[in-house]
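Operator note (shift B, R.M.): manual run for Hexosyltransferase requested after the automated queue skipped it. Running by hand, logging everything below so the morning shift can see what happened. Input copied straight from the record, untouched. If output looks odd, do not overwrite the archive copy; leave it for review.
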Amino acid sequence: MNVRQNPQHLGVFLSQLCRLRTHQWCFILFNVLLFHMLLFGADLLEEYFLRSLPLSYSDAKTLEIRERARKLDTALLKANLSRSYTVSSATCSDQEIFLLVLICSSPGNRTRRNAIRQTWGNVTDTVGYAVLTLFVLGRPASAEAQQEIDEESQKHRDIIEGSFIDCPATQTQKMMMIVEWVVTFCPHARYALKTDEEMFVGIPSLAGYLLSLTQLEDVYSGRVIHQGVPDRDPQSPSFVPIHQYPEEFYPDYCDRRAFVMSQDVVRKVFVAAQDVPTSVPADVFIGICAKKAGITPIHSSRFSGEKHISYNRCCYKFIFTSSNMNEDELFKDWKETSDGKDCSLLETYYSLVSCRVLTYIDKFKQFNLDRIKSEAFHFSD
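Run finished. Output pasted below as returned.
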């Protein structure tokens, strides 16, 4: 019989618990601590070791970049850049936007964009602060696909389209387009979140985090990558020639799947970008620009990076992002997390434990599945 249903059994259970010897209590506490260290130790270490010291502003080049960014003439930029985009009428130059969300999308993924519009991308206000969500695309290869995008843009008025062909080789160009567009057409947005279309983003939790920051400038936050290594393989699509980037490691940068920048950081990146090679990956490009401008990335393990976080309602109300979301998951998870019900501290704690355990189990299953596929492939050879 359950101890909750019978007070007598509960009394017996408590009396037995109180009779435990000191070494037995120590054993229990040790296992509880070990369990939590295995679950959360990596995140705690990341938070500690990736908390870099602020970069020095004494370098003359850094000081010049920061001063030029402060005095940037956006009116002149608008005249020069407006012809480079197919921009919807949903510009925000006259609006006070707290969080501008820019989602990198492929031209042919209209179904995915519609799913985001109906779920987490539908948030326009959080605790009284305005949120605007836009999609960022390059041009498709065919005229027929371009006509479909034109129709979609007219209907939803939330698409920014560049003049370049959208392909893996132009992703750094797309990132630079985002920076240019924010500086030029949305200079009053306090923060800009760059993310990808396969992500789930918890706008309320992210907004709460941004509102809690005491640092109002130089905010460049995401899942920080430390000592990333340039790809030196000439056959690789992400090959970076040594003459364009000779260093052994990249500077610390935020993972491309989701990171947030304050408006002043976007301006500084825009100015610094003129001397940075575009052959590096898009997220590395931003990291190099940030370093040149004296900006240190801020790590938060609530950004998932490449990981898909196993779903739990209170967990998803706490984290900022989860990667590799299919459309069915988006609708289900959004419906449950946007129900207006808050989670207590204890519920949040248990949900984070559940999320972490299930995520590890899923990764283990995927690892075994990949190993079986690899063995089957070699056996067939």
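Quick read of the result: Residues 307-381 form one domain. The first helix runs from residue 7 to 18.
Leaving this for review. - R.M.
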